[in-house]
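User: tokens in, sequence out, please.
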């Protein structure tokens, strides 16, 4: 199911709806019905975002090329040691098809230039993310020499991007004063050309991100059909969230529920 929520619904994790921890629910409803037991959920900021055709990759998964950006020690921000483990998980599944910009190499200009390369099909950003409540278009990925803002992103054009994996905090958080408008980083990546985006509704754990990344890329690789031309990203994220949920416990919803899929 692809959800296109508006108003207050845009701030709720609809994909995680269900009966949790209610006294007597086991007797009444078994373990409690969960939406994720029935369907795979995706989101879209606008209906037009669903009309794009997937690109074809003639050589299959081995031809997929990725840009990976990691910031383990961003100036004036808390350290993120888990991003290096996250990158290791990605390399395990994508092999030598990766352009990796790490730490001091991941400047705003270098990242923007790499994003706009014709061959870049997967973009993975493992860094801090900021939601600007005063000026939503200034929400940003925090890189080594400054912020890559939504306003700068939308001036770019991703010519060949199939997936943008935004492994940062609050990348799909809307603005309470603009509930009918998709003003967040995930929507911005769709606008500039990515067919599919993985984002986060709130802050994520540094220790959880490598688990999600590992399982997402494992599932994408396993389920890729040569000649199909589509990455089954929503299904891959659904499986990854389930793996994390089993590790941290179903009741720990703040850890496994923030990950969401946008697009096709």
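Assistant: Sequence out:
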């Amino acid at each position: 199911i692809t959800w296109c929520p508006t108003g207050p619904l845009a701030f709720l994790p609809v994909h995680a709806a269900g009966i949790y921890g209610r006294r007597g629910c086991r007797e009444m409803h078994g373990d409690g019905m969960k939406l994720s037991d029935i369907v795979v959920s995706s989101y879209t900021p606008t209906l037009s975002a669903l009309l794009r055709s997937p690109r074809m990759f003639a050589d299959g998964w081995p031809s997929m090329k990725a840009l990976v950006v990691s910031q383990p020690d961003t100036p004036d921000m808390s350290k993120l040691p888990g991003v290096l483990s996250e990158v290791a998980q990605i390399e395990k599944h994508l092999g030598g098809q990766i352009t990796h910009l790490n730490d001091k190499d991941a400047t705003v200009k270098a990242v923007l230039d790499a994003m706009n390369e014709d061959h870049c099909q997967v973009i993975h950003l493992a860094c801090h993310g900021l939601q600007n409540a005063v000026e939503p278009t200034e929400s940003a990925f925090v890189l080594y020499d400054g912020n890559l803002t939504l306003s700068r992103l939308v001036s770019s054009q991703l010519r060949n991007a199939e997936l943008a994996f935004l492994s940062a905090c609050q990348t799909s958080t809307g603005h309470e004063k603009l509930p009918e408008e998709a003003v967040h980083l995930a929507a911005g990546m769709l606008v500039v050309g990515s067919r599919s985006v993985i984002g986060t509704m709130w802050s994520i754990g540094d220790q959880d991100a490598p688990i999600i990344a590992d399982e997402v890329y494992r599932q994408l690789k396993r389920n890729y059909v040569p000649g199909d031309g589509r990455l089954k990203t929503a299904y891959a994220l659904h499986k990854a969230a389930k793996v994390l949920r089993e590790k941290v416990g179903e009741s720990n919803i703040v850890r496994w529920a923030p990950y969401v899929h946008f697009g096709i």
